[in-house]
Amino acid sequence: MQERNDVREVLHQALQALNSEKDKTLYFDLHDDSLITHGIPGNFAAGKEGMKEYYREVWRAFPNARFDFDHIVIEGSEAACMFSMTGIQKGEFMGVPPSDKQVRIDGMSFFRFKGSKIAERWEVIDILSAAKQLGVRQQLSALKNAILEYGEVQANAQLKDKINGLFKKHLN
Fold first, then answer.
1. pLDDT tens digits for 51-104?
2. Would you say the pTM of this structure is higher than 0.70?
3. Which of 168, 126, 130 is nearest to 148 (CA)?
4. Rounded distance, CA 28 to CA 49, Å?
């Protein structure tokens, strides 16, 4: 029972840090230095450093980002929750130019804890529904970036160039 309360407290602290007006980076302190990440976009490094890069980009693109956790389920040293992030896109995000539009990004996070630190996390993010909210140019940019994330495309420079060429006339 105590382990469950500890996990719930860390998730509460995580939400407070994500929504902090002062220092959102306290969120990173809740993660173990040997963090294992799954589902953070491939253009970011693996592990804790990649997670930091990703969230810093989120905060630059959505300076007024507001996070909410719903449907939290805790089982031993593991937890799962649905989340939403709302904010106005003021900066570039994963190659998508600023839209000045309010968006809501939904997803699910799964966490494995080691003591009072998050040791492993999985992210499932509904990025396509967010792209629909951004407008045509932003949708095309998001689609292009999603295609370029596939391992087969990343491994084939010629294919990558063709895909970039297809989108170039619509995005410039």
1. 999 999 999 999 999 999 999 999 999 999 999 999 999 998 877 888 899 999
2. yes
3. 168
4. 9
